[in-house]
Write a structure and sequence with these properties.
With 66 residues, the chain is of the alpha+beta class. Helix content is 61%, strand content 15%. The chain is built from three helices and four strands; from the N terminus they run ββαβααβ. Helix 1 packs parallel to helix 3. The radius of gyration is 11 Å and the shape is globular.
């Protein structure tokens, strides 16, 4: 799935890689993931990637930026 915003056009896997490399989730990345979830057209692999990110936040491996 491709997420479109005002400044970027990324896939879930690209967002996942950006977040994992930086160690943080920005507001725009959270917004992109949220809009993808609301469109309800994600593949099982994309849902798993988002679940992995949420698990990493809960464990403290990733931080959420305001």
């Amino acid at each position: 799935m491709v997420i479109q915003g005002n400044f970027y056009k990324l896939t879930i896997s690209e967002i996942f890689c950006q977040i994992w490399r930086s160690g943080k989730i920005t507001y725009l990345e959270r917004w992109g993931l949220m809009s993808a979830l609301l469109k309800d057209s994600l593949t099982p692999d994309e849902i798993d990637a988002i679940n992995r990110l949420l698990h990493a936040v809960r464990r403290g491996w990733l931080r959420v930026e305001e």
